[in-house]
Write a structure and sequence with these properties.
The protein is built from one helix and six strands; from the N terminus they run E-E-E-E-H-E-E. By secondary structure, the chain is α+β, with helices and mostly antiparallel strands. The two termini are 17 Å apart.
């Protein structure tokens, strides 16, 4: 699971054109699983936007790539 933090627009919605669904931040936070159909679109947006922090859950705790 990945946790994304984005406080500039705490209710940002990321559109997935393939499924027609949205993944939405709530209060600046979005938890998303790799099995979620919106995962690739959300991670692409997060990687392109330097204001979005990506935290990933790993066995035994939380890991930050920075």
């Amino acid at each position: 699971m990945a946790t994304l933090l984005y406080h500039l627009h705490p209710y940002l919605r990321v559109y997935n054109p393939v499924t027609g669904d949205y993944a939405q931040f709530t209060g600046g936070k979005l938890d998303i699983e790799p099995s979620d159909p919106n995962y690739a679109v959300v991670m692409t947006e997060a990687s392109a936007n330097p204001s979005i922090s990506i935290l990933e859950m790993v066995k035994g705790g939380l890991s930050c790539p920075e």
